[in-house]
Amino acid sequence: MSHQHVRGHAASHAASQTDRDSSTAPGHNGSTSTESTPLLPTSMLANVAHEGESGRSGFHPRHFLHVLWLSSCTVSSWVNVLWPFVPVAIALNFVSDAHLWIFAMSYVAMVPSANLLGFAGQEFARKMPKVAGILIETTFGSIVEIILFIVLIVKHNVEEGNGDEGNLIPIIQAAILGSILTNLLLCLGLCFFFGGIRHQTEKFHAIVSEVGNGLLLVAAFGLLIPSAFYSALKTETVPSLDLHVLHEKFTEGKLQDDVLRISQATSIVLIMAFFLYVWYCASSQHSLFDAVIEQDEHGDTDREADMAKPKFTLTEALVAIACSLVFVTVLLIILVDKIEHVVESGVPDQFLGLILLPLVEKAAEHLTAVDEAWDGMINVALYHCLGPSIQTALFNGPLVVIVGWILKKPMDLNFEIFMVALLVLSILVVGNFLRDGESNWLEGALLVIVYIIIAIAAWYYPNPDVATSNGIEGLSEGYVAISTENLRRIQQLLGETNNQ
Known about the structure:
Keywords: Ion transport, Membrane, Transmembrane, Transmembrane helix, Transport
CATH class: Mainly Alpha
InterPro entries: CaH_exchang, NaCa_Exmemb, NCX_ion-bd_dom_sf
CATH architecture: Up-down Bundle
Largest sheet: 2 strands, antiparallel
Structural class: mainly alpha
Strand order of the largest sheet: 1-2
Number of domains: 1
Strand content: under 5%
GO molecular function, one term: calcium:proton antiporter activity
CATH topology: A middle domain of Talin 1
Helix content: over 70%
Family: Belongs to the Ca(2+):cation antiporter (CaCA) (TC 2.A.19) family.
CATH superfamily: NCX, central ion-binding region
Number of helices: 19
Membrane topology: Multi-pass membrane protein
Shape: globular
Number of strands: 4
């Protein structure tokens, strides 16, 4: 579960921690709020948490721009200097054919747009009851990634005769695993590194690492089953030739259909697991989220400054969400449109999906997590890293399989062996670093180094038309050459028998 800007919730719930320890918290209208508080308020203005109030109503442009500029933390506010790239990227897309420049401008413009979406989602969530606020932050924390995956699957189009052109499924698969790896290695590594520089050693709650790492292993198990199924059976297949003698054989096409069906069924189960996880975190009195707040709220070095910051009104939060959604969607469409040109320029598919796309769609969230670690809130920072990884594995990745199913596009979870190995090894490395319940700058540096090694390997990894370690195309060619010769002999024998 991705709690975009959980820090806002940590600060906002700090004021009512004493009451929450007795399972009650004061509400805006003087009523009490317990773990059984309804998911959504009966009225949009009812049960507004005191810490979420702005003291105003309506829309005020000057105040809106001021709050937007301050953002959720100092690092996020620096991102706002990139806003001029947004109109430049959109304008270039309409007036220029410089595809690489358009891709580069859109890539940079995505950072402030995604940052605004996360911040606006946090501001809106703070005006909701506790449980609803958590669920809303979960949604907005992953919406950029969901939009990216959906745009990619919609744009996927492989027609007869055009070879691999328009095949975006390998990029989607790489982006799913790349998002998990970016959070586990790069984001977590930077949090450990910068937190360790300022605080030497930071200790985190055991429930964060135990539950997070356990869920990652379960999610990885579900994601990798289709790949394992394919790898175990691909050597037993015969070419999918339209001959009567093969009608009962286990063909490559049959295996591919089976893998697709397994992926679709597995995706449904993983999404169900994700909602169970969200419900547990949102409703349990001793949930992971509560443990994070209780341990970190007193360690936030700039807690008072966060509490004193001006806030969006409800109207301003909704306007910010709408604007950021429009910008994010338009920029992602432009990015996806230019992917073919970027690949033709020499950037490998696997590097694009595994490294470039996850970096930009997670940039704003990573900056916030690093700022949390710098301020001593290592539990919240750790949750920023593990939570989005869990959500990508349990919800975002399976969701794109379901969308592809609806659009009748063969999106499955049959990942390349190379990427499967990276995911498993990364989870094991991170789990080993989390085992002792504390972090330092050296562990962070080592995680970043592992990520850099993966990026180097991804750059040199061939495109799917060459590297098909877990694909149908590369396997079929060798078998077709041998099997066809044998089949011709069988046909000749059958013909001779019929003539007799």
